[in-house]
Each structure stands twice: as C-alpha cells, then as structure tokens.
Amino acid sequence: MPTDHSSGLPGFDVRWSGGQEHWTTRLNGEVDLFLWHKPAAADVPFRGTILFVHGSSMASQPTFDLSVPGRPDSSAMDWFRARGFDTWTMDNEGYGRSSKHRNINFDIANGADDLAAATEYILPRARSQQLMLYGISSGALKAALFAQRHPGRVARLALDAFVWTGEGSPTLAKRRERMAEWTGSNRRNIDRDFVYSIFNRDHPGTAEDRVIDAFAQAILTLDNSMPTGTYVDMCAKLPVVDPAKIQAATIVMRGEHDGIASIEDLIAFFLKLPNQDKQFSVMRGISHASFQQKNYYNVYHILHAFFTEPAQVYG
C-alpha cells in the first residue's frame, strides 16, 4: 500500500508569482524552452546574474522557486534576488513546461544544449557579461558540460550533488539494477512515493515531511513522468565531463549524507580543476536535494559566499 504522505498543509496551492515568464527555442524552432526570471531587488546593490539548473526528477520552479507556508525563504530565487542577484531558471527539454514531443530520452548532452540556447537568450538581457551557474545532481553535470563547452559565458560555477565517474556511489549502484527499464523507454513514471524516496534513500530525517510533500505536489503539478536519459548517462556513461577543460571558478558542494557520489570521486575531480579559484564544501546534515533540506540556510550561505567572493587583486 502507498505510504500516506499528508503534509499538514490543507489547501496548499501550487503557484508561482513575482516572476516573469520567458520562452526561447532550439533546433530552428522545433523545441520550445520555458524560462522563469525573478529580477534583482531594486533597493540593494546588483551582485550578478544566476542561472539555476534542475536535476533528473523535477522541473525548475518546484526546485528553485517553491514557497512553503511556515518555511521562511523557501524559494531560493527569492532569497538570492533579495540580495541583489538577477535569478533565472529553465525547464530542460522533456521537463515541466518545455517541449516533450521528441522521441529521445533527453540526456545530459541535450541538457547542455538547452543551456546554450538559454544563455543566448539571457545574456543580451542581463546586466552582467557572464553568468553564475548553479546546477544540482544531473543539473550539475549539465552545467559543468555547458561550462566546458562555453567557457566565456560562465564566471562562477557551483556543482551541488555532483558525480564524476560514479565510482563508490551507492545510489548509482542501486539504480543500475534497473538499467533494462531505463534503456527500454524514454520516460519513467513518478509519483509522491518516488519523491519521498529521493529524501529517504540516504538518510531519512534531513528534510521535513511537509516540505517534501509540498515539493512533490509542485513537481506532480507539472509532470507525472520524467526522462530516462540522465539516469542512463549517470549509470553507464560517466564521466561525461572533463575537469581539466573547465576554466571557471568552481565550487563542489557535497551533502554529508548524499549517496550520489563518494567523497573520493569528487576530490579526484576537484584536484583536476585548473582554475585555482576553487572550493570544496561538505554540507553537514544534508543529503540530496539540498534546497529542500532542514539545513537549507547553510546551503544558501555557502553558495552566496562563493558568488560574492571579492575580486582577486593578485594571482
């Protein structure tokens, strides 16, 4: 029987407000990409432009702009815009409000192509010449591959819940047991229990049930299935990123309890990054989906510090 995941949020209504809807296209108009923009607050100094990149099992707005009653600053986009950042996010092809019609599994490389199209749209409208890029889970892989391909567009790169080779990952080892399922279809079904499994597979208790339930409700408002491409890539095709080719200043953010990658795998990646403006942060009490955790303010703090690091005068 399915578990009862009542959130204690009677009448909770999934809606997003205070932002601006944008659209761009790829492949000569065949693919429509949805973008969501929340401009920097007008009463604080401008600090830069952030593009947030979502993971394998959720679209952009539930991940980065979800307001939960009784949870202050639940929307990362709102928290960062209040501190002077122009904030953008997008639904990759196959997710949320973007096109889903092509007969492909929407893999990591395709997601990096989406980011190329999105940044071509954003940068002419931005107040900064380069972007700050944050990606989580497979979104971190997409962001890293995009930064590798387009170094001139990225000033600072944040990789959260990242994996490089997959060696030593309990999450990917378990996921490989279902490879026939992932390779046999372009999409996989999701439901509320699946969303709970994201939080409970590593270390139950790092996120509040009411937050997970609101997150699940927001995800399922937009999608009842997700592409399989990122799962296939992460289980069978890693590494898809070459750290030696990433020129941007980079932070690797690893939740203490996150099973998507071993510490050893991430440190090996970190050591190969050529830009010595780089950081490695272990986030205490965090598993996966860090913005939805109980310690989300710690995640905001780490990311904000990296994105506001003073310009170097010697190097």
TrEMBL record:
This is Alpha/beta fold hydrolase. It holds the Pfam family Hydrolase_4. Residues 76-291 form the Serine aminopeptidase S33 domain. Keywords: Hydrolase. It comes from the Bacteria. One of its GO terms (molecular function) is hydrolase activity. The keyword Metal-binding does not apply.
